Every structure is written in structure tokens, then in C-alpha cells.
């Protein structure tokens, strides 16, 4: 837990005012409490976790359950309106912005997104259902992603259309003025 917290601290630029860091602290504590062996102590920590999680949800507008499997260095860039299902799997170095929903497509049906490494999720994006988002993919702002996104691709629109990403060096000033 402490190694992950140290890494989270660095990810958030050692800035205690970043609400994403608060959420990650409570998340890491929530996962750690499962490893506590004496049942009475684990129950006490579970109660503390539930109180902290509720306070953090109210203060930040970020809902992140401790059952979610998260890799290293998750960066919640902006706070507010973020919901992440407990069934979701998130890889390393993922960036999430405000208004993002990652979760189930239909109530009562299992299956949440599996997000690869180095994925950039734009503001207001919705990733729903048992989909796979490949490594280095970019999800555009307000995109509604209902299908798999291959590695390195761009998903934009409602419903999202998958497009290949151009390398930054390929775009020229003429492309930008058009």
C-alpha cells in the first residue's frame, strides 16, 4: 500500500490539494484493509473506509470502488462527475478527466471495460459494457464507447467511431489551417 501511495504522491506532483490524490489514498486504504487478518480489526477498518469513501465522494464527485483493479500511476486530472464501476480493470499510466463514466452497459448484466496502459480518456467520455480499450488509445471528449478500441486508436463521437491516430510529426501547418 505504501509503495503505491508514494507513487501516487509523485503522479499528482506532490500536491496535496489534488482531489484525485485524495481518492487514490482512500482507494488504496480500501484495498489494503482486505489484508488485515484479525476480523474485528478488519471490520473497524472497513467501517472507516466506508465513512472516508462517502466523504471523498461528496467532496470530489468521484466514485471509485475498492473492488476496481487499477494499475500504477492512475491520474485523475480533474475532479467531478467521475464514476468507475467496481468491475472495471484499468492499466498503468491512465489519465481520466472530469465527467467520465466507466461501467456497465445495462443494469444487472456483468461486464465492465478493460482499459489498457497509457490510455487518455477525455472529459465527459462514457465507456460502457464488456469492451477492451487497447494500449495507447485516446478516447475523445464526450465520446460514447460501446465497442472495442484497438491499441493506438482514437475513439470520437456518439456512438464512438474508431479512427487511426496520426503521428504528431505527420501533421503539417497546412493540415492545421484547413
Automatic annotation (TrEMBL):
GO CC annotation: cytoplasm
Catalytic activity line of the entry: L-serine + acetyl-CoA = O-acetyl-L-serine + CoA
Keywords: Acyltransferase, Repeat, Transferase
Pfam family, one: Hexapep
Xref: PROSITE patterns: HEXAPEP_TRANSFERASES (PS00101)
Name of the top EC class for this enzyme: transferase
CDD domains: LbH_SAT
E.C. designation(s): 2.3.1.30
An example Gene Ontology biological process: cysteine biosynthetic process from serine
InterPro entries xref list: Hexapep (IPR001451), Hexapep_transf_CS (IPR018357), LbH_SAT (IPR045304), Ser_O-AcTrfase (IPR005881), Trimer_LpxA-like_sf (IPR011004)
Molecular function per GO: serine O-acetyltransferase activity
Gene3D superfamilies per record: Hexapeptide repeat proteins (2.160.10.10)
Assigned protein family: Belongs to the transferase hexapeptide repeat family.
Name of this protein: Serine acetyltransferase
Organism: Malikia granosa
Amino acid at each position: 500500500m505504501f509503495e503505491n501511495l508514494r507513487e501516487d504522491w509523485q503522479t499528482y506532483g506532490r500536491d496535496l490539494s489534488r482531489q484525485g490524490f485524495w481518492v487514490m489514498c482512500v482507494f488504496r486504504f480500501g484495498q489494503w484493509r482486505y489484508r488485515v487478518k484479525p476480523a474485528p480489526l478488519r471490520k473497524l477498518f472497513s467501517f472507516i473506509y466506508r465513512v472516508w469513501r462517502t466523504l471523498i465522494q461528496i467532496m470530489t464527485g468521484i466514485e471509485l470502488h475498492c473492488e476496481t483493479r487499477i494499475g500504477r500511476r492512475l491520474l485523475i486530472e480533474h475532479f467531478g462527475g467521475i464514476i468507475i464501476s467496481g468491475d472495471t480493470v484499468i492499466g498503468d499510466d491512465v489519465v481520466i478527466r472530469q465527467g467520465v463514466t466507466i461501467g456497465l452497459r445495462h443494469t444487472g448484466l456483468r461486464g465492465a471495460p478493460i482499459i489498457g496502459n497509457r490510455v487518455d480518456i477525455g472529459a465527459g467520455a462514457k465507456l460502457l459494457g464488456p469492451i477492451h480499450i487497447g494500449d495507447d488509445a485516446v478516447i475523445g471528449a464526450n465520446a460514447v464507447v460501446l465497442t472495442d478500441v484497438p491499441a493506438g486508436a482514437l475513439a470520437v463521437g456518439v456512438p464512438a467511431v474508431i479512427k487511426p491516430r496520426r503521428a504528431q510529426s505527420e501533421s503539417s501547418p497546412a493540415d492545421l489551417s484547413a
